[in-house]
What we know:
It comes from Frondihabitans sucicola. This is STAS domain-containing protein. Keywords: Plasmid. By secondary structure, this protein is α+β, with helices and mostly antiparallel strands. The chain has one domain. Helices cover 35% and strands 29% of the residues. It is built from 3 helices and 6 strands; from the N terminus they run βββαββαβα. The protein has helices at 28-39, 58-66, 80-93; strands at residues 7-12, 15-20, 23-26, 43-46, 49-52, 73-77. The chain has a 4-stranded antiparallel beta sheet, covered by helices on one side. Strand 2 and strand 3 form a beta hairpin. It is globular, with a radius of gyration of 13 Å.
Amino acid sequence: MKLSGELISVSIDGRGAAWCDGIFSGDEEIVEMARNASIFSLEVDVMGIPIQADSDSTTGALAALYAYSPGRTILIQAPDDIFDILDHQASLDEPELWSA
């Protein structure tokens, strides 16, 4: 695995967890779920986008962190390309955002 130094962090009901270069850290329950989601390559709904969880990529790690509670997860920090993907999906889900 190539080290990137990219960080993803989330908050779920005031509890935090993060991923960087294949390592999950933070709240024990969230981290355990993220690791299991990665091991079993679970498909997780991340803000309307089905993403396969893993611990080797930023998108996979995002899905793994969301696996604990997709509807209550707040994305705190992520690389710009992750926010671009989510923003693009939001614009597709809400066509009124297309007009300037």
